[in-house]
Request: fold
Amino acid sequence: MKANVIDLFSGCGGLTDGFLQAGGYNTLAAVDWEFPTVDTLRKRLSDKWGYEQASQKVICFDMQKTESLIHGWDDSAYGKSCGIKELVGSNKVDVVIGGPPCQAYSIAGRIRDKNGMHDDYRNYLFESYIKVVKTFQPKVCIFENVQGMLSAAPGGVSIIERISNDFNDAGYYISEELREVALFNTSDFGVPQKRLRVIVVAVNKNQCKDYKDMVNEFYLKLNSLKISTVETVNKAIEDLPRILPLDNPKSRVSHYVEHEALNVSDHKPRFHNNRDVGIFRLLANDIQSGQNKYTHSEQLKALYTEKTGKVSSVHKYHVLRGDSPSNTIPAHLYKDGLRHIHPDPEQARSITVREAARLQTFDDDYVFLGSNGAKYKMIGNAVPPKFAKLIALSVKDVLTKE
Reply:
């Protein structure tokens, strides 16, 4: 029998896709509040996984309105619905997965915000997650977020302390040593990307007798799935057709695809002006030649000032290293076209949507809907499906033993 899953803050479905790839899981419902991500996940569930009622199962609604989400709503922005409780019906919810938007927990976000993100509403979206957990009482919860969650303390109270207390009040046990056991780098699991993420597993104390052992077993199992082989940027994207600069860019087109990709969508470049194309070529050549003149932040900031006449407190440029995993693919990629530069100097451009998706381990048949900006954003926000599959296998292992 398959375990029934609800995915909260589902985005375009990285976690859900990983759980379905693992086998033995059935998606009862998924919730997100952005229309492009919801449309994308609906299409994926329908086309890839054969869900006939994908448009009903994937709900577009604001998680902050949790009571309405559970019991139904009639909303000017999101329309009308019976609510997630009626959608689930008599089915037992076995697993709740998801992670609230992470910007308020991220270290980079706190540096950029004048109040250190202390006033950001996203600090407290986990409370909506907990309300759904209390309603459906699954055996296991997976709560995913950024490394900064371990140090965030909005209002002077540790997020870890808040989450631990809230899970305990809801009847769930989580590890008392999250800082030691819950932080993972996805590059250790075959993902061609260095992406640090906190994975909190919570087990229902009222339904599972050996709940502490189950939590420990989950982390032991997930750690056992690490691999010694490092997946690199080149291995992930080098078979895609090259995209080369035009001699005379025009009409907001700066590059052309050397050979059109067969059955690969979203492999189209951003527009880059001649100045940026020259900078990208310079930086990629610097690394490929081994000169490494521009590999430190101060040198990159100086180059930015030299080329643009502007001053920046952070370095704007980053070339992906072909023989290493990528740096983190962020949601911010949707409005930042300078920090994920292709390693090939001849291409002199930032990565495409499909290349970002490959570095996040989305299959090539994963169709992303919406504008290019929306696609970059949803990919950057997602859990890599390959890593999500291993999380799902670890959950399955402890549920089977229990």
About this structure: The radius of gyration is 22 Å. The CA atoms of residues 214 and 401 lie 8 Å apart. Residues 241-351 form one domain.
